[in-house]
Amino acid sequence: MRLHINIDHVCTLRNARGARYPDPVFAAQQCELAGADGITLHLREDRRHIRDADAEALRASITTVMNLELAATDEMLAMARRLRPDVITLVPERREERTTEGGLDVVKTEAAILPFVELGRELSMSVSLFIAPELAQIEAAARLGVAQVELHTGEYCERRGAARAEELERLRRGAEAAHARGLQVAAGHGLTRHNVGPVAAIAQVEELNIGHSVIADALFMGLGPAVHALREAIARGREG
Ligand code: PXP
After folding, report:
1. Is the CB of 128 under 6 A from ligand 1?
2. CA-to-CA distance for 156 and 175, rounded, in angstroms?
3. Residue 191 CA, closest ligand 1 atom number
């Protein structure tokens, strides 16, 4: 199981004071040192956390995999061409949202996604689409020829009891359907070391993208130990 740590909220903390610290490059290095397989960052239109200079510094320093989350806009297409991440993850984005709410509507935004698929082919970057675990979205992603889908686990994390079990089943079926269509399967959003187990247990899920909870744990544990604790929770879930 690949574990990519999203370091956006290191910058949220920095920007809250307009300070020079904490440094996202240092955070990424600590994550890599603790065994993260990749670093994820979301360059939002309003630059509320990661800024262009952060993305550039991270591109120059990440030694594992750089997974750049972007909205499918012309501005972000130019950024992807300039930054050349290893993976481009396309996400929906609305300025007023607190975090990424809901998955990408691949069916409706196919025309905006296609230039990223072409750029990915041209520059050997892998393209992943962040979607809800719905068959229509999975089929549209497969038609577009992307390498991967990332299934949105936000609903699973928010629900409780039977409703959570139902959403987990939806994720399971989505992972199976995507895998059967030749797509790699990632998952993420809202995951913590307490709720990641059942998602890690889905056999087709090969990658997890986790941010907010790790940075929160890092306040009390330090970043390296927080990554280790998450890894252990994932391993426990995987082993059943
Ligand atoms: N995956 C994607 C596509 C995301 O947009 C985000 C949030 O930026 C995450 C994973 C990480 O979510 P969280 O910070 O809740 O762990």
Report:
1. no
2. 14
3. 16
Burial of 17 (0-12, 13-18, 19+ CB in 10 A): exposed
Q: Cα–Cα distance between 202 and 88 in angstroms, integer?
A: 23
Domain that holds residue 168: 2-239
Find the catalytic residue in 4, 42, 49, 179.
42
Give the CATH number of the domain where residue 227 resides.
3.20.20.70
Alpha-carbon distances, residue 188 vs 112, 130, 133 (angstroms): 23, 9, 12
Rounded-to-integer distance, Cα 43 and Cα 183, Å: 24
Nearest residue (CA) to ligand 1, atom 7: 189
pLDDT per position as a tens digit, 97-134: 666 678 999 999 999 999 999 999 999 999 999 999 99
Whether 9 sits among the annotated catalytic residues: the reply is: no
pLDDT digits (tens, 9 = 90+) for 42-53: 999 999 999 999
Give the span between the Cα atoms of 106 and 72, in whole angstroms. Answer: 11
Number of domains in the chain: 1
Distance 44 CA to ligand 1 centre (A): 12
42 lines ligand 1 (CB under 6 A): yes
Residue by residue, DSSP assigns 99-133 as S--S---TTTSHHHHHHHHHHHHHHT-EEEEEE-S
Instruction: State the DSSP string of 165-201.
Output: HHHHHHHHHHHHHHHHTT-EEEEESS--TTT-HHHHT
Q: Record the pTM.
A: 0.96
Nearest CA to ligand 1 atom 6: 189
Residue whose Cα lies nearest atom 4 of ligand 1: it is: 189
To the query of whether residue 42 is one of the catalytic residues in this protein, the response is yes
